[in-house]
Amino acid sequence: MKTKDKGLIKAFFAEKNILNYLSMFVMGLGCFRFKRFIKGLIFMIIEFLYILFMRTFVPKYLSHILTLGENTQTKVWDEALQIYKRAPGDNSMLILLFSVLTVAATIIFIYVWIINLKTIGKMCLQKKNGEHIPTFREDLKSLLDERFHNTLLAAPLTTLLFFTVLPIAFMILIAFTNFDSDHQPPGALFTWTGLTNVTDIFLGNAVKTHTFFGILGWTLIWAVLATFTNYIFGMLLAMLINNKLVKWKKFWRTAFIAAIAVPQFVSLLLISRALEPGGAVNVLLMNLHLIDQPLPFLTDPTLARICVVVINMWVGIPYTMMTFSGVLMNIPEDLYESAEIDGAGAFRKFTSITLPYMVFVTAPATITTFVSNINNFNVIYLLTGGGPFSLEYYQAGKTDLLVTWLYKLTVNQHDYALASTIGVFIFIIVSSVSLTVYNKTSAVQKEDMFQ
Amino acid sequence: MSKKKKIRSVLLHLLLSILALLWFVPIFWLLISSFREEKGAAVPYLWPKHFTLNNYIRLFTDTALFDFRKWFMNTLYVACICCVITTILTLMVAYVYSRLRFKSRKTLMNVSLILGMFPGFMSMIAIYHFMKALGLDQTLLALILVYSGGAALNYYIAKGFFDTIPKSLDEAATLDGATKHTIFWKIILPNSKPIVATTAINAFIAPWADFIFVSVIMKDNYDKYTVAKGLYTMVEKANVYEYYTRFCAAGVLISIPIVFLFMQLQRFYVGGVTAGASKG
Description:
The structure holds two protein chains of two kinds. By secondary structure, chain A is mostly helical. Chain A has 18 helices and two strands. Chain A has a two-stranded antiparallel sheet. By secondary structure, chain B is mainly α. Chain B has helices at about 5-35, 55-60, 70-100, 105-115, 125-135, 140-150, 155-165, 165-175, 180-190, 195-210, 210-220, 225-235, 240-280. The two termini of chain B are about 45 Å apart. Mean pLDDT of chain B is about 85; it is low at about 270-280. The chains are: A mainly alpha, B mainly alpha. Chains A and B meet through helix 5, helix 7, helix 9, helix 10 and helix 11 of A and helix 1, helix 3, helix 4, helix 5 and helix 6 of B.
């Protein structure tokens, strides 16, 4: 019988042995009892590294976490050199960054510590049951088989931790500080301000409240318009190409896709320049004598909003067309045949078979599209840059989405605290939309199972 | 074919041609602007007065302010390494979630789902300072790390594909004494060429299109720019008059390989979307 992975910690404490108890403080000691030296050593090295890490980072950074630094960098008159010298102060940014890192390291360490207890507990149990305790070589082998998931996940999860999880944790914390253009360390420190950013957005600051709700409203309108225009026209285009009378179907599909395969920063920047007052579109319209004055495509709020939706159709319709083409080809032919036997006309076949089938199959993809439209940075930023700018708004324009506003606040205004708060709100919106819909669709699928 | 059907067929083709033309207007505009001799983004006529190849030539010879060749090599370098790292990481994660069963599997998948809902570049400032602390700011290595770092989140398509490979293949191999390690390399990967290709092409294209992280990490170090950020800088207000036609030329040059790769992707695109739909 193989020793199970349950009750290992109990087994660890059941064994009355001094080396076992000491393993709680010096990790891996217990392994030496069973002559598993390499394993024991690895645990010890991890503990050593952790202590080393904490010794450097805790006094320098983590100990300042409550204030985020007290000593601002100052200029000190140097008598000998007759110049002002900078006396280094604290840096709130680094204090927070490395505190997050320290906390993460500690969580990982606690996890390893528990593994340490379990490993030794398992060795005790195996010994008691008279089983063979795997050697280090055998452990390595199991990493390629039973525990292969540990091997494969190690690298991806490490990079994920450093480049996604920790930065997100850091930015969420930033949302509770006053890290803005007036508080840029090391010149000026920032500190905790609690929920000020949230209350600013919702009640405190009239301009920010107006901006947030204005942009939120437009973001939602945009996401709905962008998703549905693409959905409907993409479906129509797919059906047009799929029509029995149309030849060279593959050629048409390829043509539309080729047009939008050009990188967006090329095509959208080009279109944006063409829509300027002296740009190609206005020149064309004026040469045709349709207009006398250039139209303010990107400077009039309403016109700019119409423009981004229309140009987004140019970008998006070929994609939806591809999706629907695939779906149309997959509709079982016998459905149509039996409908014809029942005497259904072309219109009836469309409303009772094609349409429901397409809507059902593409439902999850449509939700994904909707969510990605909420965050559709490229189309807005490359076309209008969020403009036309509005004085009623706080550092934003009339076509700005929440994400582009976040970007501008970060890159141009260095107003990181507000940007992070908006980021958290985007997360809340996106996750609630996704989860609601996810639950709905999985309910639909469960229903299917009973039919 | 009856006469009525013939007319309808002609009308349908006419409609499609008009639409296709509409979709190609910007591409066509890009092409003729790239050969235009007169400078500037806005000229009061549509058809260029003179055509020239100079925009293409000067892109490579006039490197005083913007060194296009360098941008191109930077991007190629980053894209190649990212392609390898991201593909390996993504496929590993996809295989684990698709085939291996362990305690924390569901938790990890849910956490990935949640992490993916944060706006991607919300954390760019944290990443920048993290890179700076490591001494990696304004380096191409930082870009590679940023682009490949989130690979563990983009496993959905590959996992969906792995799910369709019959489990009986694995079981047969296990009976023959194969470890999970051998199964991954010898059975799953050789049977998944389309998805390997898709993942690789996607990972290769991404660095060519991103200008957000490049702006944050490289700041104003023009020599370290990639093409996307470089071209973006070319059409900023201060440079657009001088560099607009060159921007178009560079756009054409970049678009050719990207369009080619993108078309390769399309072969797998539809299958992925519908496969995901039927499984939820």
